[in-house]
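just leaving the lab so this will be short. below you get a single protein, a line of residues and a line of whole numbers that encode the local backbone shape. id like you to explain what the token line says about the fold, in plain words if possible. thanks a lot i owe you, the record is right below:

…
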Amino acid sequence: MKKYVKDLTVAEVEFPHSRYVLLKLTDSEPLPEMMPGQFVEVKVEGSPKTFLRRPISINYVDREKNQLWLLIQTVGEGTHKLAELKAGDKLNLVFPLGNGFSTVQKAGEKVLLVGGGVGVAPLLQYGKYLKENGAQPVFLLGARSKGDLLEQDLFKAIAPVYVTTEDASEGEKGFVTQHSLLSNEKFDRISVCGPKPMMVSVAKYAKQSSTPCEVSLENMMACGLGACLCCVEKTVKGNVCVCKEGPVFDINDLTW
């Protein structure tokens, strides 16, 4: 898939949470093909401490408005600088990068999409893709509290949504692997993105239930092209660059 280095224009800026910003970017030309699970590398201007580009998952592609959405958690100087962008500003991206989630395997297959924290971001576009291509996506989202849940209305517009919160403020109390859905339903496969402990737990459940499972790793990826080696992950085939071979991996290829 062809890669681009382009200045996109900020069309809209939203703040779905005090620690998150949603940037909706557009271009004068139609946006290129992008697969669910791929990511972009963002150049942060005006941040002296941010030397390297920042990897951000593709949250959604709105073809009608020709917009690319980036849901960003503001955790450091670079991401806080991104949160200061206004409509009309330019943002330089290298995209689309990496290998995304699996394509639809068979018509009507039931796919469980599990996300936690900002890890829910790539699942929105993936859920839309699955539904449009004849699969049956189901979302299982986890958070510390009700206020930490992101884009719920958008997820619900695509497929059924199940929730766990650690404080029981919404959905079932506990972690995603403790949700009753996993005991009551059978899925053809599972896709996961979120904190590593959560992904490891879901991977363990998937192996125990003999359910095919893939995870989207969130290793720090500075170049996005496999050159800087800062995102290396140990696999059964040896060390690989997550940005180039992933970020999505079959759990059987990992050493978890």
Notes: The two ends are 30 Å apart (CA to CA). The chain has three domains: 4-97, 101-215, 217-256.
